[in-house]
Amino acid sequence: MRLFIALFITILLLPTICVAAKKSTLKIIAKEPVTMMDLGILKLNASLSRQKQSGLRGATIRAKYNVRKGTIDIKVSKPVKKASKTSCKNLIKNTKKIFLKTYGKKKTSNLYHYFQHEGTAYSRRINWNDLANHVVITGIALTSKNYQDSVYCQSKLMKKKITY
């Protein structure tokens, strides 16, 4: 009787073991959801790596989502011979040119194109114009001789104020 029970339990467990072995990493990854934020940051970084904006030649630009602050942080660093507040301010100004268009006195951002869903389910619930209000740009004018002389500055995408 014990042998029969042991054989029965083994037979019940055998298909489970075989099914577990058939799950490949690719199948597990394929079933994981991707958020609009993940996909948007990926598209944004891909676009920023190809950017040929004047004044940003030689600069490194990366974007990430800051969960604690609820912001999209764009970091721009560029090596310069002598770092100054003016060079850092120009980094911020040239980075804003990538995302902002001015029509008269009104500024609009094209940032939402990276995060916008292709479907229509979110069109009524999301205010895409508000997205640009949550973007913070950090500029770093790096000196190659002494990194302590580097200048850091920060500004929100839709604001003029720059802090050092």
Please state how the strands of the largest beta sheet are arranged side by side.
Answer: 1-2-5-6
Number of strands: 6
Any idea what the shape is? Answer: elongated
Give me the secondary-structure category: alpha+beta
**Helical run tally:** 5
Order of helices and strands: HHHEEHEEHEE
Our Rg estimate from Cα atoms comes to 25 Å
Strand content: 15-25%
Q: What is the count of structural domains?
A: 1
Main β-sheet: number of strands, strand sense, barrel status?
A: 4 strands, mixed
End-to-end C-alpha gap: 80 Å
Uncertain runs are none
Written description of the protein model:
This protein has 164 residues and is α+β, with helices and mostly antiparallel strands. The radius of gyration is 25 Å and the shape is elongated. The mean pLDDT is 84. The protein has one domain (35-156). Helices cover 37% and strands 24% of the residues. The N and C termini lie far apart (80 Å). It is built from 5 helices and 6 strands, in the order αααββαββαββ.
Reconstruct the topology from this structure.
Blueprint (H helix, E strand, L loop, with lengths): L1 H21 L2 H7 L4 H14 L10 E7 L4 E10 L4 H15 E4 L2 E4 L2 H4 L19 E9 L7 E6 L8
Parallel strand pairs: 2-5
Antiparallel strand pairs: 1-2, 3-4, 5-6
Quick recap of the structure?
The chain is an alpha+beta fold. The protein has one domain (35-156). The protein is built from five helices and six strands; from the N terminus they run αααββαββαββ.
